[in-house]
Amino acid sequence: MIFNEILISWYSVNKRDLPWRNTSEPYYIWLSEIILQQTQVKQGMPYYEAFVAEFPSVFDLANADESHVLKLWQGLGYYSRARNLHATAKYVANELNGKFPGTYKELLKLKGVGDYTASAIASICFNAPTAVVDGNVYRVLSRVFGIDTPINTTAGNKEFKALAQELIDVKNPANFNQAIMEFGATHCTPKNPDCPTCPFINKCVAYNDRKISLYPVKLKANKAKRKFFNFLVLLSSNNQTILEQRLGKGIWQNLYQFPLIETKSSMGFNDMEALLKRHDLLRNRSFELSLYNRDEVIHKLSHQHLYTKFWIVKLDSSINGIDYNDVKQYAVPILIDKFIEAFNF
User: Fold this and answer.
1) 152 located within any domain
2) Where do the HhH-GPD domain residues begin and end (predicted)?
3) Which residue of 42, 92, 163, 201 is 20 to 30 Å from 64, comparing CA positions?
């Protein structure tokens, strides 16, 4: 029995019952794939269900306000995915009359759709023999075939894509692609894979060489930069605070946050108090300052670590801001959301 036959046979017995596997409608497949990028099924499932309930068609998503989409996305991270999701929904609804492109090449032209997502949609919805390559696929192929080419290199991308394309079942590409992703997600896992019951145990190079933990190979990333964030949580005499929208390019684009002061190092109380007396928001105002979290909250992103303090600024005067009761309506980064929940305005 060849690789794709073994894999699909395994899948027929072991596949999970997931909502997007009960349809070949491109909108739902696209939605699930975008949500599950950089996200495990367990975490992404509630978001998928929420989006389907709120936006049952691509037209509903296209007609939504971006702020509503970002709020529903809150907690998933990588917010550019949500913005691209909304932009693509508008394009499909308004320019393509609600019909997704039916080929891999045309799907690639959609905002936020790369090789993996285009391959998944093309194979699952249109039966196109285009192989998917994601983290699960890298892991399975590198272990079974003993490939030590780093997966985060151009050469690695090309090699694994070519191998997956060579292995795909051209008569049943949808099942093959879903099978190899499922096998990596539930059986050939990053840690403690179920090798004793693996259908490839006799063929797996990594297992037979006792090098399971060494695959896939990945070049070390550059050390993450450290940034020091100081959020000002203003509490006014008229029960209002201030949230500002981040308009510049970046991971939190169009999300809301408390006024931010970024510093080169961790700020002590006296230095922060002196700085705030000169701040535009607080100049000539009387305020009482306190530090909410003595230990910095460390928020780790792929390329930077944010060392964060929340400073509570009580004002004797009123401000023109946001009522305490309305704070939770705004789409904010998960870092801010956790503070809002704990502080309980």
Assistant:
1) yes
2) 35-186
3) 42
Residue 127 contacts residue 195 (beta carbons within 8 Å): no
Residue 95's domain comprises: 3-214
Which CATH number does the domain housing residue 336 bear? 3.90.79.10
Question: Same structural domain for residues 148 and 291?
Answer: no
The string of pLDDT tens digits covering residues 35-93 is 998 888 999 999 999 999 999 999 999 999 999 999 999 988 888 899 999 999 999 99
Co-location of 112 and 14 in the same domain? yes
Per the structure, how many domains does the chain have? 2
Residue 250, pLDDT > 90, answer: no
Q: What pTM, to 2 d.p., does this model score?
A: 0.82
Pair 120, 164 in one domain: yes
Q: Catalytic: which of 33, 182, 244, 262?
A: 33
- Give the Å distances, CA to CA, from 16 to 11, 19, 49, 119: 9, 10, 16, 21
Mean pLDDT, the chain, rounded, equals 93
- Residue 33 designated active-site: yes
* CA separation for the pair 299, 192 (Å, rounded): 27
